[in-house]
Every structure is written in C-alpha cells, then in structure tokens.
Amino acid sequence: MIWQTLLAVACITLQPVHSDTRYRLNTTIVPSAYALTITPYFDTNDDRAFSFDGEVSITFETTSNINKIKLHSQDLIYTSANISLKNGDNIIGLNESNPLEFEEDYSFAHINLASDIVVGSEYTLKIVYRGPIRTDLNGFYRNYYFQNGVKKWLGATQMEPTHARKVFPCFDEPELKAVFTMSIDRPAEYKPSLANTEIMSNSSLSNGYIREIFYPTPRMSTYLVAFLVSEFEAGSSNALGEKELGIYTRPDAKNQTEYAFDIAQRIVKALGDYFGIDYYSTNDKLRLDHVALTDFRAGAMENWGLIKYRESLLLYVPEESTPYFKYRVAQIVAHETTHMWFGNLVTCHWWSNTWLNEGFANYFQDYMTSLVEPDVAADDALVIGSVYSAYNADDNPDSPAITNNNVNSPSEISGHFGTITYQKAGSVIRMMHHLIGDDAFKYGLNSYLSTNQFQSGYPYLLYSALENGVRNFTSLSNYEGFQFTDIMSSWISQSGHPILYVNVDYENSSIELSQIVNDLFAFLFADEVKFELLHNLLHFLSNENEYAVWNAALKGLNKLRNYYIGSDTLDLIDEFALELMDGVIYRMGYDVKSTDDFKILRNRMQILEFACKIGHQGCIDKSLQWFKDLKDNNIWIQPSLRSVAYCTGLRYGNDEDYDFLWNRLVNTNVANEAWIIADVLGCSQREDKLKSYLVSMLLENSPIKTQDLTVPLASVLTNYSNVPLFESFLSSCKECSEDEVASAKSSLAKARAVTAWADNHRSDISSSLSNDAVTSSASIALLVVGALLVLY
After folding, report:
1. Is 110 annotated as a binding residue?
2. How many structural domains compose the chain?
3. Within this chain, do residues 168 and 79 fall inside the same structural domain, yes or no?
4. Which of 336, 544, 609, 740 does the annotation list as catalytic?
5. Which long-range contacts link 63-66 to residues 24+ away (Cβ below 8 Å)?
6. How confident is the model at residue 515 (pLDDT cuts 50, 70, 90)?
C-alpha cells in the first residue's frame, strides 16, 4: 500500500545520433515468392570442399517503373551470365554495357536492365551462384561433432538479422515478406534434411545426392528461412493430431531430449490457447522441430517451424544437470515458441522496433513457464532476471530508448539486440499486463495478431489493439483522463526510467525484499545513497532464507567485491558478508535433501558458491571433500553442488586437479556438464593453467566451441586480479581471430570499468564496515523508509 504520493521524477533522455540510411534498400520491388535450391559440399577433398551451389528464383512486382533491380548479396559468386529475368515467357534483357554491379560496403547487387519493368506485371528473377559454407556461425555455416571417433560434418543456418544475403540473393529486410519453397540436395548417407516445412517429395540425383523438396512456407521474412543438412536424428517426436513436433540432435545425445519434448508440447499448446490462435492453423504443412546444435552463435533462434538451440539450452539430463538448466530449457523453449506468433506471424516492420518481437518473447519466456512448469520458479526469475537487468542497463546515460530509429547498418542492427530491446521491453510489457488486467491483455494481443497476421507490425497497431482491450473491459476506469496508448508509448519512446521517492509499506514478501536490496545496490552504484544506509539494511539477511532475496544481495555484494580486489577494503566486505551468511548456511545445510524444492536447490547453489569464494571454512572443507571423493573414488556429486565443488577444488588444488577437470570437459557427452566445467576453470590459481585455458580457445578441435568463446574469458576474469595475465595473453595472441579479440576486449573493458568508482567510495565503505553498528533488530519497513527519506 502506498503511503505517500510521488515526490519527484527524474528521467534521462538522449539526443539522437543519425546513422547511415544508405544501408536500406528503399526499393519499389515487392517480392511474393522465392524458390531456393541449395547443394552443399562438405569434405570432398577438391575445390568444391565446404562450398555450396545455389539457385534462387524470385517472383515480384514493382510499384513504379524501374530499370534497375537492387537487392542484397554478400560473399556470393555469380556474373551477369548467371542471371535471367522473365515476364511470363518474355525475356527481359540486361544492360549490355554494365549489366551487374556490386556495392560491397552495403552488401548490394545492382542488376541493370535494358528496358523498364513496369507496374502491374509479375516478374521472375533467376540467379545461379556459388557460396562458401562459412565458419563464423552466420549464414550457411559448417560445424562438426565426433561419433565413435569419426568427425561428422553438418551444415546449419543462422539468417537473423542480416545473414540471409550470405546464403541467397534476396530482399533482406523484415517487412519484405514472401513465400519460400526450398529444395535441399544432401549426400545420400545423411539423414533427411530439415527445413521450415514438411518434405513434399524426394528424388535421387545422378551425382549420388538426394533432393528433398519442401512445402511452401507461410508468408514470412527472409531472416526466418532455415534448413539443416546433417546426420541428426529425432530423440523424441510425436504427432499432435496430424502435426509433427520433434527434438533433433546428434545420435549420441538422443537420450537427453525427453524433457525438451515434454515441455515443448505443453508450451506450444498453452501459447496457442493464450493468444487464441493455434500454431498449426497458420499453415498445415508447418513443422515444429527443435534442434540442438553443437555450435550455434545465438543462444537459440526462432526460425519458423525449425527452432535451433545450443545443446546446453535444449538438452537436459536430471542426473547430470543443475536445476538451473531445467529452468533454462523451459524458459528458452517458451521464448522461441512465443516468436512463432510475435516475430514470425507478425513481424516488426524494421529493426528499430525489434522489441515487438523480442520484448514479448522475453516476457512470455518466464510468464508462460510459470504457468506451464510452476516448480522451476520462473515467476521469481521474471523479476530478478529481466526487471533488475533492465534497470541496471537503463541506468547508463547512453542507453537508447526501446524504439531506436537510428538503426540501419548490420552492426547497428546487431547492437540493438540487447538488454533494452529484450529485458526492458519485456518489463514494460509486464507492467502493461498488470495495469490493464489479463482479460484486456489477451483480447488486445489476439486482436493484434489476428488483424496483422503474415504482415508487418508497428507500435501504433499494438497500442490500438490493446486500447481496444482496455475499452472492452473498462480496465482503466479508475484512472480517469489517462489513455493506454499515451502510457505505454511514453515508456517505449523515451530512454531512461523515473526514480520515484516514496514511502512504502512492504509486506515482507521475498520478491518485495529482493526489489529493495536490488534497488539500493543500484542507488549505491549510481551515487544516490551512501554505503552506510545499505550496510545497515543488509543485516536482515542474517535471518533470511529466500532465494530471490539472496540472489539480489549476492549480485550486489559480488559487484562490490570486484571493485576492491587486492585491497584491505575487500577483507572488510568479505568479513561482513560471512557474518550475514552463517545463519542461512546453518539452516539450509550443505547436502541436498530429498525434500528440497527448486528454490532451495538454487539458493544453496548460489550461497555456497559465494561463501566458498570469500573464505567460509565450512563451505571450503565440504567442497574439497566432494571434489576429492569424485577424483579419487568417482563418487557422484549432486549436479547442484558441482560448480562449488569444482571451483573450490581448483582454487585450492594443483595442476593434477586442473587436468582432471579438463579431461572431464573433453570427454563428457553432456553439454550442461561441459558448460559447468568451462565456467569454473578460471577458479584455478595456477597461472600456467589459466594461460593454458585461454590458449585452448585457439586449438583445432578445441572443446571450447566458437559459441562459447566468452566463457573462458569471463571465467578467468571472474577474479579481477587476473586482469594483468589477461592483458598479457591478449597482447601476445597472434592467432586470435577477430571474434576472439572482440570478446576479450569486451570482457576486459568490464573489468577495467570498476576502478574509478571504487577509488571514490573506498573511505565511505571502509568506515561503515570498520564501525559495524548492528541494526538487525530494525524492521525492513523502517529501514526502507529511512533509505528513501535520505535520497537526494
């Protein structure tokens, strides 16, 4: 209950910075259909190796008479002799003196014509070309895995946001939707290829390949085109009525697909019910396959009917995976499946409004998971994972608005896929849902999706649809004079967020307490409160057991620690944190109990990982025993305790201990276990092993995949005292690729960013901790009132 009204509001806005609009097609051409044929060559030991032949036919009309066709094309090889243009049976000739030009800076191909193409006629442009099967995990790229010691190659795709042009010449902008009919030629020993839709027919070719032709897709954007050429098999598959849903992976991981299969079926049905549009009603030949790839740059990708994931985000083995990974599988499946409606059925007209796709996926990833799989605590995760992240990102004075009109180049587009577009937009959508109620929200979303299906979405169309829901259910009857569109658009179009100075009567729920802790740490780092205030508040943690509250506290304390690595202030922070943690460790215990629910398991994980790091002797002793039992006697460690056991074993271990875990990483068949080990290898205090870990990224057939380049970097820099070692590695790394250097510099920048703030606040923090006036008897409500009254 609010005790007092708003006292002050501060909202930061940014001056617009204009970008280069020449990256836009600005075309009068309206494509309606693509026919695409792809023939890949893998390790053929000739000049075709790791390339593909392609043929694309594009059917289109034009809204004005033109004599030039401008489309996207990047890294594809063809000449004017490979191009033909027809109007029915009539051939349209190319300009003889200058038939074809490439504008590489903007990824354009210009096809110059001998005569105009005119309004009201339908044309078909055909281009035969060759392209590389790439290594950068974009476009059509190659990847491998080992099966029984044999290296197996596969070809996968990642088109979003601007990579379809690397696979076929096209009009590669989201609002230029069309129907796609694909033909994929595959080696005979490979399994049937996968694409957006079901296979319509297949035939054997004279070169020993098998051609599979797929049913036409729904009308969709180029970035949603997807296919997979591999020996993958369905670990789990079933028909929903007459419609297929499958979980595909390398054969050795088929036994890890059961949970994904179960949750995927429940989520697609629940989303269809919620939005009022059954998934399969949009096209009767759509698939809904989920594929676990061994190397995939995006965490997951919502290709219509063929969703792709990293293995660790789709495969789950209860005996070998922490509870976190179960939650993540459910969450990411929900995120990507939400895109079948928000992003695929209705697509943002341009990347400036990517939030129309990603904001809804971000919100429903936890909201829908909380409805379908309540035991994984997704309702808490929605707040501590998205809302808090949004606030932290939005505190940056350079943060853009959710709608960012200065997005044109590929790098600007990729850069727009960040916390503001995902978490802040999702948090605003959550707020609007709470404001207008579930009935009005569902009514509005159904109206938006039904009215605009197979078309482009715009913010005003969404606002209008939700406004209809508000009127239909009189949702804002208690807010006379307020219009829903004005409320939501103000959050979407402005950067920053208000800071409200209020007194609040909290009910001591775990989420409310976690919000208090998160907010006060945010205010501390934004110089809005003194550390003394936060220090006094945190004493209540001595009697606190809840996961969400400790999650907020540990994130804040960990950030504070990183500011003072190597100083006396760090010792004071750790002493204070250890005092706070003794109680919860005693009450919770070290060992997993059969009665532990998901929140308790996750809370023990985060508590023990932090406690061991800051020197809690009981935690260290227990973790070292778990590690020794595993190493010496192969005694199984509970998945939720592995991270703390592995990290502590390395922190206090020797070279042999590091090698033991490295070998487990190399040999495990479970992606989640590999990720846990990769994440903790930086806990080692052995400088030569840390260097070895960084160098491992560069090795041929490295267990550190391209998708995971940031993992060893972040792992090593978890201890900020490793910054000099890290800088030395980066400066001497002649073999590092652009990706590796970019990832390293990003990680290093984050490590360096802490020093100025730390120097300015050292005295205040040291003084408060040295004069530790215990105020644990003070109520949370009184402390919060005090906190908010002293804000300046």
Report:
1. no
2. 4
3. yes
4. 336
5. 63/28, 63/29, 63/30, 63/119, 64/28, 64/119, 65/116, 65/117, 65/118, 65/119, 66/28, 66/29, 66/113, 66/116, 66/117
6. confident
